[in-house]
Amino acid sequence: MAKLSMYQLQKYLPKTDCKKCGFSCLGFANHLISRDVRPEDCPILLEPGYSESLAKLNELLGPGLDFEKEVTGLLIEPEKCNGCGICVVVCEINLEKSQEVESGRGPRFTDDVVLRIDNGRIKLVDPQSCRRADPSDYICRACVELCPTKAISLV
Amino acid sequence: MAETLYESVICPSCGCLCDDIDVVVADNKVKSIRNVCQWGINKFFFTKKFTSTVKRGRVERPMVRENNLVETDYETAVSRAVDILKCSRKPLVYGLTNSGYYAQNVALDIARVLKGWFEPRKAVLLSPYYSAMKNSGFYIAPLDEVRNSADVIVYWGCNPVHSTPKHLARYSLYPRGRCKERGNLDRVVFTVDVAENELVRMSRRYLMVEPGTDFLAMETMIKLLKNEKVEDYEGDIAAIQDMVQYMARAAYGAIFFGLGLSRNGNAVRNVETLMTLVKELNQKTRFVIVPLYDDFNTNGAMQLLLRELGSPVPADFSCDHPADHGMPTLLENLHEIDAALVVGEDPFWSMPSEHSDQLKKIPIILIDPFWTRTTNKCQVVFPTAITGVEAEGIAYRMDGLPLKLRKVLETDYPSDEVILEDIYHRLS
Question: Distance (Å, rounded) from C-alpha B46 to C-alpha B43?
Fold first, then answer.
């Protein structure tokens, strides 16, 4: 899934900045990307003249976030990944769960880790264990910041 | 169908020779594979490099040229290859960087028997490196030592994100070592290249150099290390000063260099100056230098030349002293060649066209598992098993460590070592 920009979504919003939803139109677009709000939360979009815009926004945003994106906020684009394994090595949960990762090796076949390289691409195998899944923990961005090909980003 | 798991298989793709690959095989096909990069996966799935969705065409049977290439049996192909090589006055044995050490050894014997020219691919970079060791000293360490101790890492003329994808995570910047328990937080990286790349974002400083003029930056660094005045350098002197300051204060440093140093034909001067810089750095601290290259057994061919002939330069057996002929590159002497035995290499893709045109005039014998640009221009083509996947072999890692490659798939194709041995026995 390509990453959406708030300007891309703002084109289909009323652009009145009425703040009936609580935000400006650009702010509303930003919250749409993070899935904090739905297009139907804008009262003006529910008016008959905006039905096409509403349909287009729902099409762009898709049916909703996958479980792993909802839990971790990580947007992984495998087609950009070159399998370098930096995210696997810098992930602190991986380091706790697999001794091999500490020395730069990939996790063993039986190790239960968060991220691993599967068939040459990065795969989030256990989103529930990701540090980002626990809201009380500090916000970890190691894999996002250190990915050389920008295959991992935040929604 | 029963699945077989092969753990800790060595990946036969780049010079890293990563030994943490887990392969699941079902029905004599690789079903899934873990901990392998985009480059390594093409070896196991027979796909194009960095394009794992595009399958490569496999050469099915031996072929000889009548008017076109026609399929034939193995014995006929070997006889034809032997005839071509026997009629040749000075054949070329080229490639071999994707073969095991023993196959390289047999190929060297073939060149010796025929009084031909033996040149592994990428010798243009590694020959000056090993030659310069005679003057500068032996500054090399296992990659595990770099991982455990290095706090300053320099990538000069190479981009590991593309050439050796797992190098950063496995051996240099990101892994946690015995003395570097915080991984990348305990290390500093410098990048020197002709253009910005992905590595620049991870680096403390990026030094841009003009193509082929790396030696000017190195000479400036040597002057700064000797506390001499620098007045004539026109590049980014601030970056150089910063680099020298960090390198001189490092507890343990590592320089990785790549093919960027061979630009504009300045490989020898660039590599020799870099080795002098490392020698100078070792007066103050501990610094090692390791080459980065793409084909997995490039270093094996160099080790073979050093062991057999005592010199890392390509061997010309038509001279009395094959390793001391004063001819550093194949490309300058290509007009002398009248037949070629190419193993696991595609010269019509990798050589400049003015040089590969020379090869069109001579008969070529090709040993390669896949169809390449060279295949259609050959007199004899042998299909072969892929070393490290379908055949066993010995490969040398970039730091000179020999590793035994395993085989995970069964095949009917002979290995390149078997084909070369058959040719050698008929010749001798």
Answer: 5
Question: Would you say residue B331 has pLDDT above 80?
Answer: no
C-alpha triplet A52, A35, A38: angle, nearest 5°? 40
- Say whether pLDDT at B284 is over 70: yes
Question: Measured at the alpha carbon of residue B52, what is the angle toward residues A95 and A83, in degrees to the nearest 5?
Answer: 20
Is the CB of A88 less than 8 angstroms away from the CB of B171? no
Interface size between A and B, measured as CB pairs under 8 A: 107
The 10 Å Cβ neighbour count of residue B362 is: 17
Cβ contact (<8 Å) for A89 and B183?
A: yes
ipTM of the modeled complex: 0.90
Q: Does domain A6-64 have CATH number 1.10.287?
A: no
Q: Both B136 and B284 in a single domain?
A: yes
Alpha carbons B339 and B271: distance in angstroms, whole number: 31
How far is Cα B294 from Cα B297, in angstroms, rounded to an integer? 9
CB distance A124 to A115 below 8 Å: yes
Q: What is the CATH number of the domain that holds B96?
A: 3.40.50.740
3-state DSSP call for residue B81? helix
Reference B291, options B327, B267, B313; nearest CA is: B267
What residues does B370 pair with on adjacent strands? Answer: B58
CA–CA gap between residue B83 and residue B77 (Å, rounded):
10
Contact B162 A107 (CB under 8 A): no
